[in-house]
Amino acid sequence: MMIDDMVTVATPGDSATDERLVFYISDGTGITAETIGHSLLTQFAGLRVNTQRFSFVDTPDKAREALRQIKAACGERGVRPIIISSVVEEAVTAVLEQSGALILDVFGPFIGRLEAELGQQRARHVGHAHGMVDFAAYEARINATNYALTHDDGGNVNYNEADLILVGVSRSGKTPTCLYLALHYGVRAANYPLTDDDLENMDLPRRLVPFRRKLYGLTIDPERLRQIRQERKPDSRYATIAQCRKEVAAAESLFKAERIPVLSTTHTSIEEIASKVMSALGIQRQLF
User: Can you give the pTM of this predicted structure?
Assistant: First the structure.
């Protein structure tokens, strides 16, 4: 059983007594439970949650150990925990139901209706949701990830095989978006960081000109950019608000002059950025 660290999602003005404990439990990686659970929890404005993921809980004994740790985490709070589960094994689910927690089965609302519609019972394959079933799709993800890594921050400028190229100032969200696109969609995404020289010339860098149709710009609020850069290079010219404002303004002017589609990453999740970029560039890929 793998246990991920507890993560707090807070909103200003909340107190610790107002938080709810939420546990994602899965017999696989837990990615499905966590993704769906996060989407559900964000529907409740101002909610403060502490989350923890228990992965590979595929036996009753592992489920009992998870419950022991959940009970210890809850302590004397007096508020029952919430368990968001993607467990398919009935014996494991039966143990979880003894917890007294609110249990949300992410598959439960759909399985019965699908079985009725398809005329067959589901096969209870533990961890099947993230199994390596389609080797071609798996290879596409690996190749796309390798491509993103070797074409990060202008390190390799052979963009002939790129599906798209993200352009923006340093720390505007290019690299994590490229990796997300590769891992989840098998998209070959490169990124190009706009340097001071690029921004002073106010012309599209020559190496990008042949690939104009693949370009998508990312921008960011200068204050947020300053915070990110300050964490990486504290008290440097690179992290000053003046430098951040200068670079962002120049980049946005370049995008406008070159008619490059652009999106602000300031308050946008990686998932949303990826979806909007693919839609804007007409890239149709299914989620792996």
Answer: 0.67
